[in-house]
């Protein structure tokens, strides 16, 4: 027994000395050694035009579904009916504000009526400042020469948001009231929010074809999870004492919901509506790849032809629409509190002013419905042509004068970091990469993460696009490393300084509002159509969320701990590296998780501007029928990468908190 005790006490210090960083380092060193010996063997390389048996089978499935779409009962009485209902909704909304209908040369409500209604609704749910912003923003669409494209985008967004909220809010209420249903829904919501936007397109076009209706269905599936999750959180956040008080008064379950839970959670639910609208707008623009009308189609066509000016003009319109919709819904969530601060005098005047504003908006709607001058936006959109011309001029200047700097930066990252890492991934035997990923999963997240990584690797091999998946993995990891570098630098700065936080956070909030498409445009001007454009855009897209998470983590380090380190003689660098960052490890891990998911989404979208790999496979699958199966397999590969990243980093975050 004494010998056993001695052995146990001897092993304990050894376990303490072998830390997770040491295990990770050992795995990576072992990988490099085996790579040097086995380079180029069993790499599962597949040429761009080659197909596997799985890809051919998926092509056959696509052809079979197309041939039997109007005879198979599942489609005749199921999917086709769903598509018809959504198509009727989209057509109705488009006929109101964007497309001619019922023999009219213009929509039912012209530009003057839309601007008037937008201003009135923004004022009614928010305040006069956001109303002015909304009116100015919508007028700007017309000045850009993009009125109809903007209204098409708005029509698809509104259609998707209506359906998403009709589904999401009741499910969210149910999840908020029922622990069992919440446990059932949580894995599905996690999975849906992990998937990059690109992934939704291919399988849904297989079922619902392409067009506006399919774009709305896709958008509903993507945008509903925030509404469900935030509504459930709002219901669960109502104080238990309030619910108990309602119980003691003899209220029924439905009375509690309608009179207590929903009113007290209204502000949070409106925030969920905000997130749903932002997600819908982002998805609607990307859905241009499946022939959705609107600003997204203009951006896609411009990116494919490398027309930076047109892409910038349309991208600017998307940004303006995102800002307007975000500001209006954000103002709506805080309107009652703002009204209380303004006092009863404001409340007394508000109702008569709203009635007068409603009458004015109705008059503008009537004018735009009756007269052509009020229906068609005047002018030729010369502001937009000037913006596009200025963007082209700026692009030419940047390429002429900064090409040396941009090329040096691109080459430094590409040749110093990206290319070597990509070579190690793509030229290693597939089973070696799989073993490394499973080992890293075990070291960082435990055996469950290792099992998930192993399963994902096996399925990735089965998709037949292993080499492209490794190329995407290389770009994603490099971009995430850059995101974390920015996140640590700016997050620590913001976490340590309230002034810096107040100055930088609004910019980060605005950056998170913009749909991912928009990020490609300026970097296309700087770096041309290369994979590096996608990587830089992914870094800029993923950095805001990482910076904010790290800033909050650093700020939450107890002030007494920092003061104790200061009194012990630690300088600023020592406080950051020895106290604040170690104590914010869970925030760092969470930032890595979110950064990876954002980056993967953006790297894949970069397939439109020369990023290649899985993003290109998906895009090619839409444009070339014989590659549809390969594009669908590439979409599955993207999902597998996302699930693997998410599971490993979430497990690592849980172990860090423990």
List keywords for this structure.
single chain, 658 residues, mainly alpha, 31 helices, 83% helix, globular, disordered N terminus
Structure explained in plain terms:
There is one protein chain. α21 packs parallel to α31, α23 runs antiparallel to α24 and α25 packs across α26 (531-555). The chain is built from 31 helices and no strands. The relative contact order is 0.11. It has helices spanning 2-17, 20-38, 53-68, 73-97, 111-125, 128-143, 147-177, 179-194, 201-208, 212-236, 240-248, 253-264, 266-286, 295-304, 308-333, 335-342, 344-370, 372-375, 382-401, 403-427, 430-445, 447-463, 466-496, 498-513, 516-527, 531-555, 559-567, 572-583, 585-605, 613-623, 628-657. 83% of the residues lie in helices and 0% in strands. It has 658 residues and is mostly helical.
What spatial form do the alpha-carbon principal axes imply?
Answer: globular
Q: Structural class given helices, strands, pairing?
A: mainly alpha
How many strands, which pairing sense, and closed or not: the largest β-sheet? none
State Rg.
27 Å
- Total DSSP E strands: 0
What percent strand? under 5%
Task: Quote the average pLDDT.
Answer: 84
Distance between the termini: 32 Å
Low-confidence stretches: 1-5, 7-12
Bin the helical content.
over 70%
How many H/I helical runs?
31
């Amino acid at each position: 027994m004494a010998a056993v005790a001695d052995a146990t006490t001897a092993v304990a210090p050894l376990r303490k000395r072998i830390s997770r960083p040491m295990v990770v380092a050992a795995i990576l060193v072992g990988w490099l050694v085996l790579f040097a010996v086995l380079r180029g063997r069993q790499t599962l390389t597949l040429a761009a035009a080659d197909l596997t048996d799985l890809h051919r089978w998926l092509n056959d499935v696509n052809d079979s579904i197309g041939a039997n779409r109007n005879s198979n009962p599942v489609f005749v009485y199921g999917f086709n009916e769903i598509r018809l209902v959504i198509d009727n909704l989209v057509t109705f909304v488009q006929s109101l504000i964007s497309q001619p209908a019922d023999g009219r040369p213009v929509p039912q409500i012209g530009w003057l009526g839309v601007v008037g209604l937008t201003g009135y609704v923004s004022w009614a749910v928010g305040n006069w400042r956001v109303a002015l912003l909304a009116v100015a923003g919508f007028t700007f669409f017309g000045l850009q020469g993009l009125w109809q494209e903007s209204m098409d985008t708005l029509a698809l967004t509104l259609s998707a948001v209506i359906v998403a909220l009709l589904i999401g809010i009741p499910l969210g209420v149910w999840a908020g009231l029922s622990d069992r249903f919440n446990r059932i829904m949580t894995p599905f919501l996690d999975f849906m929010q992990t998937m990059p936007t690109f992934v939704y397109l291919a399988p849904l076009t297989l079922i619902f074809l392409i067009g506006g209706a399919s774009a709305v269905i896709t958008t509903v599936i993507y945008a509903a999870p925030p509404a469900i999750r935030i509504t459930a959180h709002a219901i669960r956040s109502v104080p238990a004492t309030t619910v108990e008080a309602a119980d003691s008064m003899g209220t029924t379950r439905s009375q509690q919901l309608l009179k207590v839970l929903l009113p007290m959670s209204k502000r949070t639910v409106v925030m969920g509506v905000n997130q749903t609208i932002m997600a819908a707008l982002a998805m609607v623009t990307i859905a241009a790849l499946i022939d959705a009308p609107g600003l997204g189609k203009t951006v896609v066509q411009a990116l494919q032809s490398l027309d930076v000016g047109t892409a910038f003009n349309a991208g600017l319109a998307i940004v303006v629409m995102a800002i307007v919709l975000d500001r209006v819904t954000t103002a709506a969530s805080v309107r009652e509190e703002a009204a209380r601060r303004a006092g009863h005098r404001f409340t007394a005047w508000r109702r008569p002013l709203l009635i007068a504003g409603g009458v004015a908006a109705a008059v503008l709607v009537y004018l735009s419905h009756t007269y052509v001058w009020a229906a068609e936006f005047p002018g030729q959109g010369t502001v937009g042509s000037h913006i596009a011309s200025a963007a082209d001029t700026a692009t030419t200047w940047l390429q002429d004068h900064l090409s040396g700097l941009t090329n040096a930066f691109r080459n430094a990252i590409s040749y110093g970091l990206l290319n070597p890492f990509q070579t190690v991934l793509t030229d290693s035997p597939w089973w070696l990469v799989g073993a490394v990923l499973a080992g890293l999963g075990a070291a960082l997240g435990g055996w469950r993460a290792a099992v998930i990584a192993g399963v994902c690797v096996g399925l990735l091999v089965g998709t037949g696009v292993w080499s492209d998946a490794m190329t995407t993995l290389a770009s994603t990891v490099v971009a995430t490393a850059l995101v974390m570098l920015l996140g640590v630098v700016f997050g620590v700065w913001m976490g340590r300084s309230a002034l810096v936080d107040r100055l930088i956070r609004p910019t980060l909030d605005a950056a998170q509002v913009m749909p991912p498409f928009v990020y490609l445009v300026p970097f296309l001007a700087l770096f041309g159509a290369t994979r590096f454009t996608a990587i830089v855009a992914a870094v800029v897209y993923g950095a805001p969320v990482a910076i904010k998470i790290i800033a909050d983590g650093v700020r939450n380090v107890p002030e007494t701990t920092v003061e104790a380190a200061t009194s012990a003689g630690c300088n600023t660098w020592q406080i950051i590296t020895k106290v604040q960052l170690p104590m914010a490890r869970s925030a760092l891990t969470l930032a890595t998780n979110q950064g990876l998911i954002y980056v993967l989404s953006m790297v894949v979208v970069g397939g439109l501007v020369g990023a290649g790999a899985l993003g290109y496979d998906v895009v090619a699958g839409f444009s070339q029928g014989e590659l549809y199966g390969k594009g669908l397999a590439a979409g599955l590969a993207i999902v597998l990468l996302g699930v693997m990243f998410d599971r490993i980093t979430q497990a690592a975050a849980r172990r860090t908190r423990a």
